[in-house]
Amino acid sequence: MQDANHIAAAYIALWNETDAQNRQALMERDWTRDASYRDPLMAGSGPAEISGLVAAVHDRFPGFVFGLSGAADGFGDQVRFSWGLGPKGAEPLIRGTDFVTVRDGLIATVTGFLDQVPDAA
To answer: Which regions span the lipid bilayer (predicted)?
Structure first.
C-alpha cells in the first residue's frame, strides 16, 4: 500500500479542486473506476457522481478549503485521517474523519464521518 499520508493528500486534493476537468484527471490518477463515497449527508459511486459531490460542496461553501488535521495512518488496505473545512486561512468550521479502502494503490471506497458541523451548515 502507498503511504497513508500520500493517499490522504490525494483525497484532499480532489476535494479542493474546483475545475471539473482537473477533478476528472485526479480521479483517473488516484481513484479506482468503481470508487464509492458515503457519509451521513451524501453518497456517490464512480467518477461522475463523486465529482458531482465535490462540486456540490464548492457550491454550498464557496471559497472554503479542505485541509488535513494531523497525520494519516493505516494498515493493510485501510487508511484513516481527519480533515477540516473552512475559509482559507481561518479555523475550520466543519471537521470529519474518513476511512479509505485502497485497492492497487488507488482509493476504492470512502466512508466519512462528520465530527463537527455548525448548526447553519
So the answer is: none
